[in-house]
Amino acid sequence: MLVPLYEAVYERLEVGAGTRLLSLGCGSGLALLMAAARGATVSGVDSDERRLALARERLTPDGTPEDGTRLGRGGPEAVAATDGPAFNLITAFDPLYCAGGSARGMAEALARAADCAEHGAPVVLAGWGPQERCAASGALRVAARLADPMCAPARWRPSGRDDLEDLAYHAGLRPDGSGRVSCPYGYADMASAVRGMLSTGAFDAAARATDEEQVTKELTEALHPYLRRDGTVWMPNVFRYLIARV
């Protein structure tokens, strides 16, 4: 669903041969695969070993890493080369930390990643756009409410206007441009939409606090307004990205 975001950033920063990319929260590796297809040398870290396994299948299908490709679990130190050139691009595309993750922890990870990068290298942060332009925000409010019933849904928001800038400043980075990209969530039917939203990990805490049946029921209700006559589910969303400098 975030392919338009990846493409917009890579085009703007002219990612290609000579790019040494570090992806924080690389997930199943799609953004890395797209960068590698442009000729970039890619590295990625994530905390979810299952998603890292998918990334390895995508990037090293025969089990042999391409030159310079590194994937690891944990922080940027897991893939930083001690005897090679530093990274010249860092990305943090995963916006879900805004839906309950730790901004402080993200800032610390960004600061550590910056230590592995060239001076002046761009660092790309991404997050949700304005709530009124993100149809998925209704579903994510369900996740927040079920995970913490004491939290008023009206207080929850996908991302504030200055969240990315604040995160950059806390990580010791210098903002240097931004943009917005349309990233609609489209699914063939309601069952696919529910599976797709659950797979993001945003509903894991809600499932632990209640149960999967309750989460599925309320998520289906939240998605119903976006069910079209042909049975597909279509949710328009706008994402925002910030370019900062090490």
Automatic annotation (TrEMBL):
It comes from the Bacteria. Signal peptide: none annotated. It comes from Streptomyces stramineus. Pfam families: Methyltransf_25 (PF13649). Residues 22-96 form the Methyltransferase domain. This is Methyltransferase domain-containing protein.
